[in-house]
Structures are given as structure tokens and as C-alpha cells.
Design brief:
- This protein folds into two domains: about 1-70, Fumarylacetoacetase, N-terminal domain (SH3 type barrels), CATH 2.30.30; about 80-290, Alpha-Beta Complex (Fumarylacetoacetate hydrolase, domain 2).
- The chain is built from six helices and 19 strands.
- It has helices at about 25-30, 35-45, 50-55, 90, 170, 230-235, and strands spanning about 1-10, 10-20, 20-25, 60-65, 70, 80-85, 105-110, 115, 120-125, 130, 135-140, 155-165, 165, 185-195, 205-210, 215-220, 245-250, 270-275, 280-290.
- The mean pLDDT is about 95.
């Protein structure tokens, strides 16, 4: 099942993709939450009720997918936990080549730093060093603490794509990456959440690729993560309680712009695409911040 957030004249909506149509779940039952995270919290991660709503949909609840305005697939994630340095070739192309991490490198991003599919990524006025990063995202379906490898899969509702856009100059101002990772509208998530049952266990073995203006910049496979999703969630939940709708952004492969000679920064007029096998293509134009 593909779950989509979208905007309508009546506000934020939650939908299910059915071929080239979107089923508007609020049109089926107005009491349905418009935020996937809230829906997951109400059902303790059970998406069966969402599938039941989609099956009940009449013609009036169906909209052409090509005509909807995409919104973030999870409207208000409580936490966006990001994993850096998770593909060895990416570690080797940067300043950590001689210091390969022994544990997952975790940091947080705020929701204000992400836009939806087809919305513009904003290159800030203060820096040209705007980099793309193709990443897989796991969507947490139910409350999780002290996970084990035996039960970790049960807390994942689905997966989506991310362009974890980074302002490299600001990322390197200090030993903490926070500033360079949290510029407004610098990253994107979407276009859909694909439920976990439609992908390989723990999303292993998926091709992941980034393109800028059609040119392949990164191409790898999620099987090559140094810290796979299961191990990362077990590590994180030793101390962090994850809630329905929280996101785990799992790191980027090699081929990023800062490692190229000359660097390949995203610029005004570019179109960035992130494609992950079985999920879809996340596409965003790049625009300069307005003065």
C-alpha cells in the first residue's frame, strides 16, 4: 500500500494511491486523521483500518494522482533521527576516512528543514555549498524502547525517500553538524510511504540513486549500510523512545557533491531526484532563496 499526504481546498488530507488515482480517506470517513503519525498512534501501528477505509471508497473519494499537490507523507513527525556516515565508500570520500565510526552517528533534523515531493528546495543566500544526499527513511509505526533484533521489524510501518540536503560550509563550522543540516526547506521527503509488507524485510537490498538534471550522482544498494536499520534502531532505543510517525533517515552513499572535483553543488534551476527501488522517485526543483 502506498500512503500519501496531500493538500486540498479543505486542507491537509491523507490518501492511498490506487493506480493513477488517490483515495481521499477523509472523504470516506471525515473522522480519519489527516496525519499518518496520528493515525498510527490511534491504531498502535496497525494499518489494516486504513486499508479498510480505502476498500470502502466510492467514486467521489477518488482523485487523479496527477492533479494532487503533494504534502509531506508524515505531517508532524515528533522526531527526525538521522544517521550519518553509514556507507563505507561515503566515509572514505570525506574527512572521516581515517576515523571510521564504530557506532551509529546520530543527529536530529527539524520538520522545518523538509519539503514535500515537487516542492522547491531552497539554496540559501549565505552559501553556495548546497549538497544532495539520497537516503532511505523508515517510518515508525508504534511506540518503541529497548528494541531487540527479534522485534525491531514490528515497529516499522513503512519506508519513503529522502533528499537530506546539506549546507556543507555550515555543517563544518563546528564539530556538531546541526546548523548545516537544518536550513529551512533544504531537504525533501516523499513522495509516498510504502508499507513494510511490500518491501524486503527491513528494506535490505534496494537500489538507491540520486540524479541532478538527469545525471546519476549516487548509485548504491541499501544492503551496503554499515549500520543496518535493525541495528540502528536497537542502538537508538537504548536511550530514545520512538513514537508513531517518528522518522529514521538512514544515511547516504558515496558520490555526494562535496567529494567531486570540482564540487557539484545544487544550483538554481536544477532538478534533483532520489529514486529507491520499490518506493518511487522523489523529485524537487532547486531555487535560490529570495532576497
Amino acid at each position: 500500500m502506498k500512503i500519501i499526504g496531500f493538500e486540498s481546498g479543505a486542507g491537509r488530507r491523507l490518501g492511498v494511491v490506487d493506480g493513477d488515482m488517490v483515495i481521499d480517506l477523509q472523504a470516506v470517513d471525515p473522522a480519519t486523521p489527516a496525519d499518518l503519525g496520528e493515525f498510527l498512534a490511534r491504531t498502535n501501528g496497525d494499518l489494516g483500518a486504513l486499508a479498510d477505509l480505502a476498500r470502502r471508497a466510492g467514486a467521489a473519494a477518488r482523485l487523479p494522482l496527477a492533479q494532487v499537490r503533494f504534502a509531506l507523507p508524515v505531517a508532524r513527525p515528533g522526531k527526525i533521527v538521522c544517521l550519518g556516515l553509514n556507507y563505507l565508500d561515503h566515509v572514505k570520500e570525506g574527512r572521516y576516512a581515517d576515523n571510521v565510526p564504530k557506532f551509529p552517528t546520530l543527529f536530529m533534523r527539524g520538520p522545518n528543514s523538509f519539503v514535500a515531493h515537487l516542492a522547491p528546495l531552497i539554496r540559501p543566500l549565505v552559501s553556495e555549498t548546497f549538497d544532495y544526499e539520497a537516503e532511505l527513511v523508515a517510518v515508525i509505526g508504534r511506540r518503541a524502547r529497548h528494541l531487540t533484533l527479534a522485534n525491531v521489524a514490528s515497529v516499522i510501518a513503512g519506508y519513503t525517500c529522502c533528499n537530506e540536503g546539506s549546507i556543507r560550509e555550515f555543517q563544518r563550522h563546528t564539530s556538531q553538524w546541526h546548523m548545516g543540516k537544518n536550513f529551512d526547506n533544504s531537504g525533501s521527503i516523499g513522495p509516498f510511504v510504502v508499507t513494510a509488507d511490500e518491501l524486503p524485510a527491513l528494506a535490505k537490498g534496494l537500489k538507491i540513486e540520486s540524479r541532478v538534471n538527469g545525471r546519476v550522482m549516487q548509485s548504491d544498494n541499501t544492503a551496503n549500510m554499515m549500520f543496518p536499520i535493525a541495528e540502528t534502531l536497537v542502538y537508538a532505543t537504548q536511550g530514545i523512545t520512538l513514537e508513531p510517525g517518528d522518522l529514521l533517515v538512514t544515511g547516504t552513499p558515496s558520490g555526494v557533491g562535496h567529494a567531486r572535483k570540482p564540487p557539484a553543488w545544487m544550483r538554481h534551476g536544477d532538478v534533483a531526484e532520489i529514486e529507491i527501488e520499490g518506493i518511487g522517485i522523489l523529485r524537487n526543483p532547486v531555487e535560490d532563496e529570495k532576497r
